[in-house]
What we know:
- The structure is a single chain.
- With 265 residues, the protein is of the alpha/beta class.
- The chain folds into two domains: 32-51 and 100-264, Aconitase, domain 4, CATH 3.20.19; 52-92, no CATH class.
- 26% of the residues lie in helices and 18% in strands.
- It contains eight helices and nine strands.
- Strands 1-4-5-6-9-8-7 form a seven-stranded mixed barrel. Strands 2-3 form a two-stranded antiparallel sheet.
- Helix 7 packs across helix 8.
- The longest helix has 12 residues, at 253-264.
- The chain is globular, with a radius of gyration of 18 Å.
Amino acid sequence: SLTYDWPSTSTYVQNPPYFQGMGAQPGTISNVEGAKVLAILGDMITTDHISPAGSFKETTPAGQYLTDRQVTPREFNSYGSRRGNHEVMMRGTFANIRIKNEMLDGVEGGYTLGPDGQQTSIFDAAMAYQEQGTPLVIFGGEQYGAGSSRDWAAKGTALLGVKAVIAESFERIHRSNLVGMGVIPFEFTGGDTRKSLGLKGDETVSIQGLDTIQPLQEVPCTITYGDGSEKTITFKCRIDTAIEIEYIEHGGVLHYVLRNLAKAA
């Protein structure tokens, strides 16, 4: 860039892609159409589940990335120490060894089902869906995003191509951080939960009414199950304020700030 010469060979600091393809003007909020499920998670999923800060093994996506760049396992350090490299951090998103994706029986760790229906890492599945141009959603339970206000829990979610997180409830700061990264949080209504809906992970999810969304508005969602049957339910959109609607229109708070700085220059 004009102000900093990003070292292309560094495994600690890389130029993040947040502003790639960014235009001068904000867009509008689009409906979520034909999204696939990246993960179905339980209650009290913490920000450490979402973005672990500790060490990782050679067999993980982050470990493979560093190995490909001639970094030995003893030099891996930790996710937290490499937070300046989005390539490591997005590979570490949902990679906590204790996280459990309910799409898989008896499996712990950052795994899911890819577009081909086979078990793979959450990172590899997300990249495969991105290549297809398929948006992603995540389902969760109560107090999604509990724990410390770890910014990478929202950054990594956005970089994986997740457009919406649907949960029974959210921890306050993580909900705000998701909005700040352009990811829309939704809450179930009417007693619906991931369990009552019988979600397995092979569903397709479409959320309407976002082009005219207002704070805390309820919107319709159509879930198409793997057998072709459909169910339409209602979500409460947890964009809580008018300024948060602007953040989402801009693609996130970083884009909002940059465009306003450019306008004032």
